[in-house]
Each structure stands twice: as C-alpha cells, then as structure tokens.
Amino acid sequence: MAKQLIVAVFDSVDIAQKAGHDFNAISEKDDGFHIESCVLVQKNAAGKVILLDSETRSFWGAVIGALSGSLIGMLGGPLDAVVGLTVGVSAGAAADAVRMDILDREFVETVSSELFPSGVALIVEAKELTPFAVDNVVQGFGGKVLRKSLD
After folding, report:
1. Which residue has the higher pLDDT, 102 or 22?
2. Using CA of residue 123, residue 74, residue 103, residue 141, what is the dihedral sign?
3. Can you list the alpha helix ranges (DSSP code H) found in 34-88?
4. Which of 84, 140, 104, 144 is nearest to 120 (CA)?
5. Which of 61, 86, 100, 141 has the most neighbouring CB atoms within 10 Å?
C-alpha cells in the first residue's frame, strides 16, 4: 500500500466529523486503507489554522504525524501546539520528519487555497491501496480531496 498525506477539505466541522467517522470505519475494515494519524483543523477568519482538539481526540488521539504537523505549521498553524502534540509520535513518523522536502511549496499553496476561512480539513497520514474509498466519502459530503505521496 502506498503511504499518502491526504487533505480532505469541507465546509463545516459537522460534515468533516461525519467524513472522519467514515474514514475510521473504512480503516477498521482493514481493506486497503489504514490511518496512521489524523487531525482536524479549521482556518479562522484571520487566515490562521487552528487545531480542533476536542474533535480530533474523538477520532485518533492526541498524536499528530510529523508531516501533518509540518503542514499545519506551513499553513499558519500553531507551531507550539503542533510540537506539543507530536511528542510521542511513532518512530516511523519521526523518520518522515527527515523527508520534509515532500511538502513542496506547490502542495502547501494548493491546500491553503482550498481551505477557505471557516473551512475545515481532515489531514490524514494513511496507507491506501486505491483512492476510491476515501474519494467516495469526500465527494459524498461535498468536499475536495488533495493527496501527496509519501513514498
């Protein structure tokens, strides 16, 4: 399975939470999609990215993958919060920190342009065999999905 950084953008927290629950259900089936880390973020009116901590914890705990945390910081997120949450990140995700060149300017700018003020994004580090299951969930909730290969 290919390792991917998946950013699913939605109009509201409620819709993003529903999509997140569907992602989790697909991952639990162990049928070609496995979540390694996931965080829910929102862009506020000032253009800052904020972590939606209470919503995030209900899905996947407090650990944000190294690349997800870096993307949040590049989008204007709270670096101190990201550093605090990445403590205890797995050895595999820590190894990814060495590969920050993956998060090129074009990908970060594309994510930033899709995440409008008050918009919400699920940032997922996952292994997936094919994109169809995730794409179907995101499209079903009227969202947009962006991917960056981590292989």
Report:
1. 22
2. positive
3. 53-60, 66-74, 79-86
4. 144
5. 86
pLDDT of residue 23: 94
Q: What is the spatial distance between Cα 108 and Cα 15, in angstroms, rounded to a whole number? A: 23
Give the chain's domain count: 1
Q: Which residue has the higher pLDDT, 12 or 82?
A: 12
Contacts of 122 (CB under 8 A, 6+ apart): 6, 7, 8, 10, 16, 19, 20, 23, 38, 39, 40
Tokens 């829910």 belong to 40
Both ends of the chain: CA-CA distance in Å?
10
pTM: 0.80
| Placement of tokens 């945390």 in the chain | 69
Contacts of residue 65, Cβ cutoff 8 Å, sequence gap at least 6: 36, 37, 86, 89, 93, 96, 125
The H or E element spanning position 5 is: strand 2-10
Percent of the chain with pLDDT over 90: 47
pLDDT of 137 > 90? The answer is: yes
Domain of 130, in residue numbers: 2-149
| Dist CA 25 CA 48 (whole Å) | 30
Nearest to 41 by CA among 104, 148, 114, 128: 114
